[in-house]
User: Fold this.
Amino acid sequence: MTATEITDVPTIPTLPDREELIRRLLSDQPLLADTPDHLLQIVNVLDSYGIVLDAYSRNLVNQGETQLLNPFPVMRFFHEGFSFERLWQHLRGDRINFEYAEYCQKAMFWHGTGGMDAYFDSEPFLETCQKIIALRSRRDPLLALVHRLYPGFAPEAIRSMATIYALGLFWRVMSDLFLDLSRRYRNGEIESVNDAVHHIRDGLVAAAGNPMTYKVTVGNEDVWVLPPEAGLTFLVDVAVPYVEAVFFRGMPFLGTVSYNAQARQISADIGDFKYGALYADPIPSMGAGIPPSLCMQDMYRNLPEELSDWYMSHGRGMHDVHVQICISFQKSMFCVTNGAISGTMPHPLDTTDADQQQANRAYAESWSERLMGCQRGALL
Assistant:
């Protein structure tokens, strides 16, 4: 074999190793391979997701405003008003699946990372809970009885609703960010995957200091559940914990793994959970109640024409469209994670200070450790 023939042998793509992931993070290169197909997929799937998040956001914010300490919130998904037509659409699945939004909220609430969770354990928050319970109990004898018998129940419900409301505020920002990404792509302003990552990074940084506050009206009195003086902000206290809980940790789905302790299919330490979006196998079961399948269906109903056409010529066309959406969505979530990491770097990437460079590298190394266990094949 000649030297020319040797150089013509195609190289086999390899998964990025840890040093390569660190290099990409520190050199302002995207984790996802920067190809036209990847750009088309991530921008269009985030366009669809932005529409879905708009609905999720409005519903969760409405729940925070109207459903606090409601023992039977059976109407929580009808934030746009109740009608028998909407009820029929709800029952036959012709609707946005808000159950996926609740799954994400439960993941954040359960894993409990970030400043918001720390505030939940503070004395001011506990005092606020007691005030809300006392005001509500005046007209709600059931709540008064339950609180007397189970004093931890109502404060836990208030914590959960505060998480629901904060997630609604977070998704409001992300919906606008993704839809603006699509607009810029159509206008020719976004020409590469790195452009898309920069758009996400800049949007997260711009919203970083947005206050996360939550006020409710109980009786005739306004009560701050998450007051301004708590100092909770968008990026550190909600966005990063969301990435941790939903992208990395997640929760095992009933029916897909055994909860039997002897089977040892689930780690005893929830910090070791690897059920998040970046770890998931792209095989939506479309079974009832599996949250990612519900999200894929929501995005399927809002796919841009460009992405639908692309799916028709890839894979098995519309026959495996939910699998294709799942793959594209996973790629887009790597870009969102990429943007979040870049936006929270301790120092600018172009710094010439040795100590700052070392701090950046340590930060990149900590994230690369987590990324090594993800579906790195999606990055190719």
User: Anything to note?
Assistant: Strands lie at 214-218, 221-226. DSSP finds 15 helices and two strands in the chain.
